[in-house]
Amino acid sequence: MLEIVSKDFGVVNGVENKLFTMSNGKTQVDIMNYGATIVAIRTLDKNGDTVDVVCGYDNVEDYINHGGYLGAIIGRNSNRISNAKFILNGKEYKVANNENKNNLHGGNVGFDKKMWDISAEEDGLVCKITSEDMEEGFPGKAEITVKYTLSDDNELGIEYTANCDKDTVMNLTNHTYFNLNGHNSGSIVNHTLKLYSDFYTPVDENCCPTGEVCKVDGTVFDFRSARVVGKDIDNVPDIDITSGYDHNFILNTKDKEIAIAAEAQGDKTGIKMEVYTNKPAIQFYAGNCMDECVAKDNANYKKRQGFCLETQFTPNCLTYNHLGDAILRAGQTYNYKTIYKFCLA
Question: Which range marks the domain in which residue 219 is found?
Fold first, then answer.
């Protein structure tokens, strides 16, 4: 049976920030109001020891000061929009240029910086916000719900639901940085990773997809068989732009059907994470530009301390429509789910 407790976790702009803990007796997941952020996931390793596999901080102030989107919900649009503009229904919308020439992760005040309303239910946590019309340049008043669940089988479910009174952009994800050897264990380059993807999308000089779709076969992007993350991480063709892996992969999944997308494993703990989703793509980011700082448990975070597997629509599909459709139409319901399952190899 799932147990949920909460405690104070700082104040943001005069509003109390709570830390909620879901526990199934084997795994515990901490989530706070600020950004509906995953602060910690504690699970058992091959020796029966409890390991926190999520990078994060001991207080909400550090989340605000360091940035990096650690553990947060991203929206309205995850990833990048080139030239910080898009056309919808024949009208051009300009959004914040907050990374090079791109709009990144929803703009200056995205969903990661919002105080979400969180309530506990029998099977999990329900997180809600309202995004007003033209907030960060996106049309329509949108109601967004993210539900976190934790099963007896150590499946952390994230279900995204949204409605809007106008046609709008909607592409939500979670930006947790995982380290399956433990968040304080150093670099993730010796993890193994498998991606259920035959194609990836190359990027331009601003790290934004160019519209090309390329086969992974014969490249450093071929993770169809599990391979060590660090094997070719410094041989990525656009290393001067991305500093390593920071690329979108198109998944071998059928529309709306939840299927396996990725598998990752820590080399020291034996902890394995399987990712399932009904989103069409996933961003693999190897933490190449992580902030070097003192984090929770007095851990000294450095480059590549954690990795992200962000389920999404293909980034920049608002510019190149052949890459997909991240438009939520008025009267329709946006509903997608991602599952992170923790087990032992």
Answer: 3-344
Which CATH number characterizes residue 273's domain? 2.70.98.10
Quick one: three-class SS letters along 121-166? ECCEEEEEEEECCCHHHCCCCEEEEEEEEECCCCEEEEEEEEEECC
> What tens digit of pLDDT does each residue of 261-283 get?
999 999 999 999 999 999 999 99
For the chain, the domain total comes to 1
Burial 27-51 (b: 16+ CB within 10 A, else e): bbbbbbbbbbbbbbbbbbbeeeeeb
Nearest residue to 251 via CA among 288, 213, 212: 213
What are the pLDDT digits (tens) for 147-158?
999 999 999 999
Span 320-342, pLDDT tens digits: 999 999 999 999 999 999 999 99
**Residues with catalytic function:** 175, 310
